[in-house]
Amino acid sequence: MDNDKKPKTDYLGFYGLLLIIMLVFNSFLLPGITKNKVNEVDYSTFLQMLEKKEVEKVKIEDNKIFFTKKTDSEDKAYITGKLENPDLVKQLEKSGAKYSKDIPTENSPVQRFLLTWVLPALLFWMIGRYIVNNMSKKMGAGGGMMSFGKSNAKLYVKSTGVSFDDVAGQDEAKEALTEIVDFLHNPEKYTKIGAKMPKGALLVGPPGTGKTLLAQAVAGEAGVPFFSISGSEFVEMFVGMGASRVRSLFKQAKEKAPCIIFIDEIDAIGKKRNSNFGGNDEREQTLNQLLSEMDGFESDLGIVMLAATNRPESLDNALLRPGRFDRRVPVELPDLNGRESILKVHSKNINMDDNIDYTQIARATSGASGAELANIVNEAALRAVRCRRNIVIQEDLEESVETVIAGYQRKGAVINDKEKKVIAYHEVGHALVAAAGKHSAPVHKITIIPRTSGALGYTLQIDETEKVLMTKDEAIDKITTYTGGRAAEELIFNIQTSGAANDIEMSTKIARAMITRFGMDEDFGMVALETINNQYLGGDTSLACSPETSSKIDKAVVEIVRRCHDSALEILKENIDKLHEISNYLLKNETITGEEFMDILDSKYEITPNPNKTNDSFENDDNQKMVEEDKDV
Ligand code: ADP
Ligand code: MG
Ligand code: ZN
């Protein structure tokens, strides 16, 4: 059903091919069929032949004489123009030629035209029709052929093969959509109370959360015709094509109502129209057409519009006003339970070990989208195959989580011993500082095996429980943990390496957000100094304050990170024996699990806690990823 070939181009190609085949057919094959056996001769030659009594049979038709010769062994016919010659009959009788009907004659022009052009065209047309019909049956589309300039929406009448059961963890979204499906099945139930169905529902959420999948599931459950088209398909090379596509889409839909129209990635046509830059006329025309078509049908007609986007803030307001896409269905990143059930859904058709702990994998993948989780399960299956097993075990899943987060293990990457030592101390620096922080997530794994993503090692921390809020203490602990790597480099080797680049970026980001968005700094208070431009894609921000404030913010950010760095150094100094011990162990083993780490830690020493603490807690609207990975060192 993902076959996106445009039928239009297929037909053009098909008819071009047809013409070529017919030309070849006519110039090489047909002459043999139509003109065979009839050879033209002069009238005088004919008379000579008569004289010599060589003519066997004659036939006179349409001012032409057809005849055969006695001397020819096979059946060969001749033709010659007939002249007004009163003596001809006598001459014929004299030479003993017989009159006969069964001499092959030349085809008439009409016959020839039929034979050379109409018959083959008919034949090819029938073959073409047969193929196209078969193809569209296979694609599940019931629509007719020939769609020049028509919408290329795919029409599903029966199941797409996807049902609500295939969509895990999106219960609210499913509920909202179930209502729509139900309305299309029994409209009376709703109209009896006087309730009107919303005309359109907009699925919004980050990429890979299952918006397209949900729409396909609606198609599978609805049992009504389902038109599916992607917003980008409206944007055509020819001006005016998009608008005409929209028109014909709605025309088709009205004929088939009750039905559902689904426009995927609607932001491709639904972007805000702007007056300053001339804009994209073609796109605006298409959008205008869409708006007017949406006004043009009553909701009791039974057409429901669905659309999906991951940039709701870029949509034109006219699209969102009541009467159009007036219902928003958020499709958010899955929570712990959601992730677990998504993992299970995708494991359904995979040979999994019986005692796999899905909860643990779900906990390690906080912030992952449904698509990423599907990818993790698939990577695990591939890994099992690589290891020549026919069953997927826990270890496969764990390794593939790391693969998806940090890239493949880079086998054969040669790192010299000195650098390896620096990397080990750097990672253990992170881990020790994390362990010292009361508010840090426990260390789950430390490794110095390089990854294809460029990470030379990393420390994985996994929270026990799902968290949606970050307190100020947690934020501080996080930054301190990030600075722990560099602190270890400085403390032990007295060097600063490029390996801390990612740590620096992350800690700066958090420190900045603490001031500009979370209101966690006394000097600035609860003032929003930054706004988020794009909620679902990256979440990049833009400053909303004066240049003076901005430079004050920069100073404050530096101050926060410096304080954290200092306390990280402090922690490591006090635990320098542990640092040496664990780093040496890591150098030997390359990977340490959380338990091993805690064992070494607990055996003798008491870790000194981080002194840099306060007690306030503020909302974190950011759903910070709890898996802290270290892309560089
Ligand atoms: P979107 O349209 O939101 O970007 P898709 O619907 O294309 O995301 O999802 C991509 C793939 O990710 C799906 O085909 C499916 O395999 C998987 N997936 C995403 N969300 C879910 C979910 N909630 N349950 C099961 N699979 C999911
Ligand atoms: Mg999609
Ligand atoms: Zn680091």
UniProtKB/TrEMBL annotation:
Cofactor binding note from Swiss-Prot or TrEMBL: Binds 1 zinc ion per subunit.
The entry's keywords: ATP-binding, Cell membrane, Hydrolase, Membrane, Metal-binding, Metalloprotease, Nucleotide-binding, Protease, Transmembrane, Transmembrane helix, Zinc
Occurrences of domain AAA+ ATPase (ranges): 197-335
Needed co-factor(s): Zn(2+)
Function (record text): Acts as a processive, ATP-dependent zinc metallopeptidase for both cytoplasmic and membrane proteins. Plays a role in the quality control of integral membrane proteins.
Domain of life: Bacteria
Keyword presence, Transmembrane: yes
UniProt GO molecular function: metallopeptidase activity
Transmembrane spans: 12-33, 114-132
Membrane topology per record: Multi-pass membrane protein
Pfam families with a match to the protein in the record: AAA, AAA_lid_3, FtsH_ext, Peptidase_M41
UniProt binding sites for Zn(2+): H426, H430, D503
Active-site residues, record numbering mapped to chain: E427
Cited PROSITE patterns: AAA
EC category: hydrolase
Major subcellular location class: membrane
Protein name: ATP-dependent zinc metalloprotease FtsH
Residues binding ATP, per UniProt: G205, P206, P207, G208, T209, G210, K211, T212
Subcellular location: Cell membrane; Membrane
Biased composition regions of type Basic and acidic residues, renumbered to the chain: 622-633
Family (UniProt): In the C-terminal section; belongs to the peptidase M41 family.
EC numbers on record: 3.4.24.-
